[in-house]
Amino acid sequence: MTSSVDTGSGDFSPEDVTVTEPGVIRRAVGAAAVGNVTEWFDFGVYSYLAVKIESVFFTDLSPTMGTIATLGTFAAAFLVRPFGGLFFGPLGDRIGRQKVLSLTVIMMAISTFIIGILPDYEAIGVAAPMLLLLARLLQGFSTGGEYGGAMAFIAEYAPDRRRGFLCSFLEFGTLTGYAMGATFATALELALSEEALLSWGWRIPFLVAGPIGAIGLYLRMKLEETPAFAKIAAESEGREGNQTLTEFRKIFVNHWRPMLVCGGIVLVFNVTNYMLTNYMPTYLTQTLPDSGYAGTSSTVSEMLQIAVLVVSMVLITFVGRLSDRIGRRPIMFAGCAMLVVLSVPAVLLLRTGGTGATFAGLMLMGLMLLCFNSTSPSTLPALFPTDIRYGGLSIAFNISVSLFGGTAATAVAALIALTGDLNMPAYYLMAAGVIGAVAVYFATESAGKRLPGSPPAAVDEAEARELVGSHR
Could you tell me the pTM of the whole model? Predict the structure, then answer.
């Protein structure tokens, strides 16, 4: 049960505060997070099976060009993510978060399922990688409307004093999905012969995405709209004119500063994210061995990354809760400092080889990432008012991810091929850390504060009375 009232004056009584039952909040968090499970299950599978996918769809290419083509197909999905954000974001601000999020989760599941049934290169030749590319483009388009909406959905349900903790569950879903995909891929490699894995085994995890998507759709269809959006929808009912065009003007003309801040935070968050989750498996199992280093076997690399993900899953909600106490900005500043200072040591540990050194290098990257994935889901929604939150988040997030995050693996692989410098991942992370620190500097601290355009939100009536004084 929820209640919310007029936010125009900025002066609130206890009756004005949005109070949402804990059970409703838990269901909202679960429904939003399951979309990330679906998305990152696919990404985990794709990253860990990249070598197999290269053998299936890019048979005629050299090892170096095959790796770049496989990672390029992965990155291609990010090229259309801004278009998904431009389409789904304003739509979510117009017809509702719940409706659009139900659509995006089923689109992601279907496109992932399609990859599992594609013919290989030997069967249909060059059409095989082209169809793979089309499926990845559909994934990217639907994903463009997923994450921004999921952030807005949880943030608008969450009480002000627990937003960091609750929003961190969105990235808990990311880690869960990736760990599931990585574990599934590792289990297949252990259980099946190389011939069976290349013939049909690699398809299984992509086919599993169908049932996961169905579960996500069911959970999302059972939820109501957020109180913040319900109020905005009631106020705008009956208005005429092109609401999407009006929203674009608000986003790009009136809120260009928050858009830049959002893009900078997303850059450092996602460069770190994709460097660890997408590129490191290839770096450890192909790039280092091809350069004369011992490297790491595929199975050992996968198990070590799964261990890093599990540690991150244990820690992420604790760091999210910490951000409610000390603020989001101090934690993100710490992450930026770690990127600048510790990226080279992390990569040098990976180059040293051996289980212990490799795990230490990956864990350092995991801790850097933890500073951002625990805080960004609660920081970014607070940059935009309710009426443009879905659109502003989706557009800024996906433009930044498209330009910098999803292309990180391909760019680093190409830079290493061009320069021969195996420390290139560290330099890339250091640059991201500097840019991220500038963005965090200009971000407003949001911990414990109400969302722009919304009344204060509390977990119960007693907290509502406390919040009224702090927001007067």
Answer: 0.87
Contact 144, 88 (CB under 8 A): yes
pLDDT recorded at residue 14: 61
Least confident of 225-234, 275-284, 416-425: 225-234
- Tell me the pLDDT tens digit for each residue of 118-162: 888 788 877 888 888 888 888 889 989 988 999 999 999 999 999
Average the pLDDT over 165-169 and give the result: 95
